[in-house]
Please model this.
Amino acid sequence: MDLPIFYAPPENILDGLIQLPSTEARHAITIMRLRPGSLVLVVDGLGTAYRGELVKTSPRKVVIRIHAEQRSFGEPTVRMTLAAGLSTGQKFDLVVQTGTELGVKRFVPIIAEKSKVRFEDAGRGRARAARLERVALAAIKQCRRAYRPEIALPTLLQDFLDEQAGEDIRFIFHPSAQARPFERVEMSENSKRVTLLVGPESGFSDEEVHGAVESGFVPVSLGQRILRTEAAGPAVVALVMQRLGEFR
Ligand code: SAH
Model:
């Protein structure tokens, strides 16, 4: 059976021992009813997983002795960024949740011309940022991955485009006859850094697609059926991960 999995930040890991944060400790003791001697897995959010044994427990304090550690636990080889139009309400939560489970390393909420969320309002979304961090944390435990993806602050499309020069693959997804069908897009399996760009609810304007192409993005289409933005993000991540051989 898979070991129960917990999160502890790196500062809680010292001299072969891990102290769980209080919410994780409470979960371990009162819900999972773990006791000294129970074996667990702890991820540090930076890519390392530790296997170990509970040595000291109280409802607020759980200490784990480390038996073994593994770096890059559950990580894909590719460093994938998903830049997706920030949607209204909680739709972006689903993008972060499923994207994390599929191996995304960095999420960038994008504000585009037709976005319903305005940049001025997005910048103040501290509650949203905290919620997305919690969603990502729950997702790494769910999918058994040790790296907690980075979630950038909401970014204007143009500012984002300017910063992606070092990427091996840059795609902008756009449902248009001018975009290249995904089937026919070439991708080297050696690509190390990938950036995928997906629009908000009302998509990108032609000028935005043009600007992205000028910055080196390839416009890609998924064919006739139009997916909702919160479905399109995870869908393109899965498609590209598959082509890069990450589902072995
Ligand atoms: N009416 C909008 C649809 C937006 S769908 C438009 O015509 O652009 C939200 C986003 O999901 C799009 O901006 C695009 O990035 C992605 N998407 C959804 N379906 C797609 C498809 N068939 N091909 C390419 N991208 C798609």
